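I am still getting used to backbone structure tokens and would like to learn alongside you. Label the sequence line and the structure token line clearly, so we can match residues to local backbone shapes. Go ahead whenever you are ready, and we will take it from there:
>
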Amino acid sequence: MKAVVCTAFGKPVELVERPDPVAGPGQVVVEVEAAGVNYVDGLMVGGTYQLKPQLPFTPGYEVAGRLADGSRVLAITGLGGYATHVVISEEQAVPLPEGLDPRTAAVFAQSYCTAMYALCGGCVSLTSSTRQVNLW
């Protein structure tokens, strides 16, 4: 398989060949069709995120792809999504509805849900009289 690997914080990532991953008990292998590209991924590669993965690591927080049985899924991986294949727990595999393309699905979990939470979940308040944005 191919994977994007960060070997040093703040340096360019590398595309490398790696052995195909093997699922253990309670896990599945996703053949990645699309991966979200998120701000957090850039912060992790730059070494400026509050959590620093152990080097070397493969970034990629969310993916969409297919399981061995052909079913389409999306998953939050945390790490490892910038690869042709990634191992996740069975519970992480969320079935994709028909009509939802992999590129849209791959950014749904973090980007879309973060925006929806910010707009509708009570963490942002707009005060028109003072023209302030309050975060809590």
Remarks:
- The helical segments are 39-46, 102-120.
- The first strand starts at residue 2 and ends at 5.
